[in-house]
Design a protein that fits this description.
two-stranded parallel ribbon; flat; single chain; GDP-dissociation inhibitor activity
């Protein structure tokens, strides 16, 4: 068996994003030879998902593009007289000015504030000192329950981040198209577990009720609001039967 790679293809597809992958699969299924390439060091293109470490590397690569390195490498490539090298990485990038901001506050800063407040009190009696010590423990205990940068990093193996978050309706036309075209063989459909929203102070996350059990178990809204929300959810579930409303 020859180890040489073929030199001629019916089509060349650049990128491994959602659209490019479907196109490449359709061309191959039609019996044509195809060369499928990706200029990135990861699969998925703009539809890629990263773990925490991976998203940090992606942000760094976006903020410090190495287009100059690509151009310099051109001189090392042996080209024929009738061939040209055209770098396309920048053309296919739709992201710019990428930056990240950490909203959770650091635990150490909070601990320092608690100790500082304690030191302001006059150490007159043992009871006062004990009360102050208990206050510090309570403050630190409550702080550790709050999401912060340190905790996110420690839990980073439990989640992935999408460059382009997307949701598909289970009975939507796109899902039906993926199934009918057999592309679903290469996909995995996953139902989302819950929806979260930030708290008014921006320091935490709250679960958004999306079922009858969620509505009546939450402590974030009043009884009257629960009834209103339940009526809305019931209306949404039966929307097709009275969509004219």
């Amino acid at each position: 068996m020859s180890n040489e790679l073929p030199e001629h293809f019916d089509a060349v597809v650049l990128g491994t994003g959602f659209e490019e992958s479907i196109l490449a699969g359709a061309i191959a299924r039609a019996g044509h030879s195809i060369l499928h390439l990706d200029p990135n060091d990861y699969y998925g293109g703009e539809w890629a998902s990263f773990n925490f470490e991976g998203i940090q590397g992606w942000i760094e690569s976006q903020n410090s593009p190495k287009e100059s390195d690509i151009v310099m490498d051109c001189n090392r490539i042996l080209l024929n007289d009738d061939e040209d090298f055209i770098p396309l990485k920048k053309v296919f990038s739709r992201f710019s000015n990428v930056n990240q901001t950490w909203y959770p506050q650091e635990v150490k800063e909070k601990e320092h504030e608690a100790e500082k407040d304690c030191n302001k009190r006059e150490p007159s009696f043992e009871n006062t000192l004990k009360e102050c010590s208990d206050d510090i423990k309570n403050n630190i205990s409550s702080i550790n329950k709050v999401w912060n940068q340190e905790r996110v990093v420690s839990e980073s193996r439990k989640f992935n981040l999408d460059l382009i978050p997307k949701l598909l309706y289970t009975s939507g036309p796109l899902v039906e198209l993926l199934i009918s075209s057999n592309v679903s063989r290469y996909l995995e459909f996953k139902a989302f577990n819950r929806v979260l929203t930030t708290t008014p102070d921006g320091k935490g996350l709250d679960h958004v009720p999306s079922s009858r059990a969620d509505v009546f178990s939450t402590q974030k809204i009043s009884v009257v609001e629960k009834r209103i929300l339940m009526k809305f959810l019931t209306f949404a579930l039966n929307y097709e039967s009275h969509y004219e409303l």
